[in-house]
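Notes, Module 5: Reading structure tokens.

Key idea: the token line is not a picture. It is a compressed description, and you learn to read it the same way you learned to read a sequence, by spotting repeated patterns. We will look at two proteins. The first is printed below with its tokens.
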Amino acid sequence: MSEITKDRTNALRTEPFARLFFYRQNEDFQVALYLLILLNLNEDEVSGIKWDDIDFQKRQIRIKDGEVSLTSDICNFLYEFRTRKLVEYYEKGILNHFCYVCSDANGNRISGDRLSKDFKSYLELYGYESLTPQEIHSTFPEYLYKNDMVTKIIRMYLENSRIQLR
């Protein structure tokens, strides 16, 4: 692993990343960012995912080119997130507006361009160019799984979530 890759990987797991991840105004973007990093999906694939595309039993997400397997941690995270969002939207009487994992506060899809722009601006904050798919695939997930960071990220997200079950 090159030093540049190590530095980039380190930037994604630091406290500033956690702050950006947990305290953005739109919780749906957090799920998109999480999927983009951990599953190595491109922006178009992430922005087009519907809840129906996630098979929680088989732990897979259907995308244009096939299916992507989910670890149990990621699957549990998405299931918990969906449950909390559905309860929140049901209580507000706008359940049908929430169709996509990546949607804004009004339930409108977040475009691939917007997602890409948001992700790139985060990396630019730290002076990095966008990670290549190879860098994400070969370094970031491996580090997370070896050090149990996936579970920690999920736990921190749920503890800091503004969505509360009643």
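Here is the second protein, with the sequence above and the tokens below, as before.
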Amino acid sequence: MTDLALSRKISILAYLADHEPTLAELSDHFTTSPSKMRADLSEVFTTEYAAHGGFETPVDVEIPDNPRGKVILRENQTGLLPSLTLAEVISLLALIDDMYGSVDTTTRTHLAKLRERIAQAASEAGFGQALWPAPTVNLEDTTAGLVAEAIAERACIEISYLKAGADLHVHSEDVVIAPVSLTTGSHPLLIAAKDSQLRTYRLDRITDVKILDQHYTRDLGRNIQAQYKADAEFSGRTVRIVCTPQARWVAETIPVESATEESGMLVIDMTVSSMSWLRTLLIRIGEELVHIEPDTVRDEMVKAAHNYLEVL
């Protein structure tokens, strides 16, 4: 075997099977120099067979003399294709699902097609039951793309944002912010500055985005990023509320993470940043409330209730 790793050979072969890049483009793709890539191509799939005492070259690659020339795969008799273990498939699908909400529409569509191909191949290999359905996403949603564009240009934006007010009803608020970065995950966050102060916004609660001519400084962006990393409590606390189906109005009127039915009960997960707001919500739920998690939040609610009773 030559010095070029087999996995790298397969990667180069797989790329050339679908592309006809220039030598410079191929070098950039594999993060190397044209001269090093030319040497790699001369070795690719040249395998020594000791028993035969010679070499066999099952791949014919046309290698140009200059970086602007095309690299063309003329023949491939290896039958080698990139393959993944089940653990790698699961990790890759999880990564794709994690990115769905925070990429632009074009990238989201490509990710969806890639996920479909990977899942289909895994199912045909007999691993279908180990996979989970693709997340339900709006592939045409342009919000993430507009926000990402504004971040790249350090442009301020005006957004319409859905939030629950003091009366626990959802209303839309128009706000001008400086978008700094996006997180990934099932509910991506837009990290931003409002009046130079750190704010976070759920991307799925933004209903409209308008990019403005106003721009913000690099220093502001760095400061907001530093504040976000340092302020662990800013992201709020995840709370699970278990209640009877009669409390479905909670999931219908308040933006929550998820709402599912389990054993005849309604299970609601949400992120809250104010314990007083949560107490108000629980009081409104009243007798329909069955349980609340985690225990630390439940204990806080119980302690607060006892304090109120002592005052009364």
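Summary for the second protein:
- Residues 256 and 270 are 5 Å apart (CA to CA).
- The radius of gyration is 27 Å.
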